[in-house]
């Protein structure tokens, strides 16, 4: 029975009034939020036209980046070229013999990048990618003799490159939808010191946009493991990404996603994926990372906001496998 049916008329009216007020509050809140986002976009545009750095202007709930790394990997500056692109050597204290040479784009935005394809992967390496790289390095056995693809890997595909260097994967494909990211990845793969380390695994980079055109035949149903970091907050890309993961995976393949909650976006993606996939969501997927997260939270620093910085692990496996 509807419990409202038991309430007297004045109580009902008062509740209706309170609910209307709550709706108004919610509308006001939503209006303010949209206004703030619009103002931030204007600030980004202004800064872009003045040649500013995008990472300094990412202030919306989608893109704030005050906290930049869990410190799981270490970077040593190598050199910058005349395009302000910077090469770093990445190492990991927990894996003494591991190194990879990675180029970062300048992270500047201009009118081109504002008008062009999504540029968030060229701003920085996001904490989810760092965490995914560390998690992959800790679970190298999973990749032996397997075909791997990284989706939305941004300008470095850090995790995919680490897997290519360290694991005994059969093949690794590094992808993103942004052309500049792919050009940068090509430079990373062609770097002499990386090329030496990459001899054992077949590695390639290519542009792959979710939901655009027919999927290349060589990709369909080809992959044992898909890896993907911080790509779940795009409302427009949600259904396309779910479908793409489904189309790329072998029947018994699995997809490892790492992404912060970013408001409701993680849960919305998970919900969309549940039609086709079994989903497994884990916060404590790796003790070291969870402990770091707890320490940062306890420290009370306002630099660290788990909603946008702490990646949750979401594993997808296909439902309709007999
Ligand atoms: C927040 S960045 C994450 C990049 C990288 N994984 C990291 O964590 O540093 C999101 C990435 O998704 C890519 N992306 C967004 N929409 C896409 C689409 N429709 N197709 C392919 N890639 C897309 C962007 O180009 C960007 O590199």
Automatic annotation (TrEMBL):
Molecular-function GO term, any one: calmodulin-lysine N-methyltransferase activity
Documented EC number(s): 2.1.1.60
Keywords of this entry: Cytoplasm, Methyltransferase, Nucleus, Transferase
Pfam families the record matches: Methyltransf_16
Compositionally biased intervals (Basic and acidic residues): 1-11
Location of this chain's protein in the cell: Cytoplasm; Nucleus
Gene3D superfamilies xref list: Vaccinia Virus protein VP39
Biased composition annotated in UniProt, kind: Acidic residues: 18-28
Disordered: region residues: 1-30
Any one of the GO CC terms: cytoplasm
GO BP term, pick one: methylation
Main subcellular location: cytoplasm
Enzyme class: transferase
Name of the molecule in the record: Calmodulin-lysine N-methyltransferase
Lineage start: Eukaryota, Metazoa, Spiralia, Lophotrochozoa, Mollusca
């Amino acid at each position: 029975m509807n419990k409202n049916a038991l309430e007297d008329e004045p109580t009902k009216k008062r509740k209706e009034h309170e609910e209307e007020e709550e709706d108004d509050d919610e509308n006001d809140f939503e209006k303010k939020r949209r206004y703030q986002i619009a103002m931030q976009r204007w600030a980004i545009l202004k800064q872009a036209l003045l040649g500013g750095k995008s990472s300094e202007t990412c202030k919306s709930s989608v893109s704030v980046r005050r906290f930049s790394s869990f410190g799981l990997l270490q970077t040593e500056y190598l050199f910058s070229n005349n395009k302000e692109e910077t090469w770093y050597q990445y190492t990991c204290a927990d894996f003494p013999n591991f190194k990879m040479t990675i180029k970062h784009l300048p992270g500047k935005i201009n009118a081109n990048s504002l008008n062009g394809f999504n540029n968030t992967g060229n701003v920085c390496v996001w904490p989810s990618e760092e965490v995914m790289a560390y998690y992959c390095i800790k679970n190298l056995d999973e990749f032996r003799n397997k075909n791997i693809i990284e989706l939305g890997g941004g300008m470095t595909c850090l995790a995919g490159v680490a897997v290519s260097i360290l694991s005994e994967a059969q093949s690794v494909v590094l992808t993103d939808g942004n052309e500049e990211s792919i050009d940068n990845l090509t430079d990373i793969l062609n770097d002499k010191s990386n090329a030496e380390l990459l001899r054992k695994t077949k590695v390639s980079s290519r542009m792959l946009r979710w939901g655009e055109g027919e999927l290349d035949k060589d990709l369909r149903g080809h992959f044992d493991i898909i890896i993907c970091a911080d790509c779940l907050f795009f409302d427009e890309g949600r259904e396309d990404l779910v479908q793409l993961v489904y189309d790329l995976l072998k029947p018994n393949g699995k997809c490892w996603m790492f992404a912060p909650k970013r408001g409701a976006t993680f849960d919305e993606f998970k919900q969309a994926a549940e039609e086709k996939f079994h989903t497994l969501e884990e916060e404590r997927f790796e003790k070291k990372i969870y402990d770091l997260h707890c320490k940062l939270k306890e420290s009370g620093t306002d630099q660290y906001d788990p909603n946008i910085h702490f990646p949750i692990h979401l594993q997808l496996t296909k439902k309709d496998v007999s």
